[in-house]
Specification:
Elements (H helix, E strand, L loop, with lengths): L15 H15 L14 E3 L1 H7 L3 E6 L11 H14 L4 E7 L3 H12 L3 E7 L7 H5 L2 H7 L3 E5 L5 H14 L4 E3 L7 H21 L5 E6 L3 H12 L5 E6 L4 H19 L12 E2 L12 H13 L9 H13 L8 E6 L21
Parallel strand pairs: 2-10, 3-4, 3-6, 4-5, 7-8, 7-10, 8-9
Antiparallel strand pairs: 1-2
Helix pairs in contact: 1-8, 3-4, 3-8, 4-6, 8-9, 8-10, 9-10, 11-12
The chain binds pyridoxal-5'-phosphate.
Pyridoxal-5'-phosphate (PLP) binds next to helix 4, strand 7 and helix 9.
Amino acid sequence: MSQPLQSVAAANRQSPETARSLCKDLSVALARFPRVRLGHLPTPLEPMDRLSELLGGPRLWVKRDDCTGLSSGGNKTRKLEYLMADAQAKGADTIITQGATQSNHARQTVAASAKLGMKCHILLEDRTGSNDAQYNHNGNVLLDMLHGASVSKRAGGADMAAEMETLADRLREKGDVPYIIPGGGSNPIGALGYVNCARELAEQAVDIGLQIDAFVHATGSSGTQAGLVTGLAAIESDIQLLGIGVRAPQEKQEQMVFDLARKTAEHLGTGVSIPRDGVRANCDYVGPGYGLPTEGMKKAVKTLARTEGLLFDPVYSGKGLDGLIDLIGKGAFEGMDNVVFLHTGGSAALFGYPEIFDLPGYTE
Ligand SMILES: *Cc1c(COP(=O)(O)O)cnc(C)c1O
């Protein structure tokens, strides 16, 4: 089981010099892996002062991975830098991946394929059973098609890995060279993107003299958190990481993150070991299920739009924020001064859910 978040006493903090030196070592370790540059990196780290004031807890910051640049941005772009480089190294000319109907991962993968001149096939799993026209055709789906992917649907609960293999066989018969990217880009190759993000954040903090107590984000297919866990362990950081779940129950989510973090550490090859108690997920904010709106999410998305001018999404970052806001109220960050929320992107999905926010019409 995971441990509650703990504030680290000032005297036990890592020094800026140690942080810099360990970050440099991690950069060297990461430089051995093929990578294509797709994102605008480093992403900004910005204070959210209006939100902090409103909530009255620790000072809140946002790490803007919604600003990675490719097709309206998001966290999958960091993973794709390593995954697409691997696909190119293997001589692939076609990418296959899968996700839910409003998958941000699919959208960023299609955009990366377009930029690199590769064909792209997307399989979308109907996880929500929604018949809504906006959900099924607008938002990320619109962008998938705009970027030129061939998109097909599969029923909820389909074995999506097997579906991708079947499609790959069919494409091989035609002479294509397909490369399969798992859902969310979550494997040890993709997770390297978030190993790199952990280093990037730690260096930014040192640059501006900021002591980050906790780092919070939405966790789904687990590659983001697994990469961060691995990266933070590699630089011996005392930043406390917390994933807010959007799909699986806590025990399953933590196990997925832990397993992938161990594989990522092995792939990284620096001998870093992954502490089980550093893998923390809180899955109390999923609501009725993956991709299904909750009152807390709606309130959080509106609050951020109206206090910070930021766009969060209904499926991931909005539920993550709901968790952050609620946990601040419950004192989970007691004794902490600075908490960073990782904005993983997803605002394109807002246009797949235009009805849920109960917004006023035009005024006179
Ligand atoms: C995919 C995604 C996540 C979750 O990242 P995982 O690596 O799948 O855990 C969080 N936020 C957004 C907006 C996403 O698209």
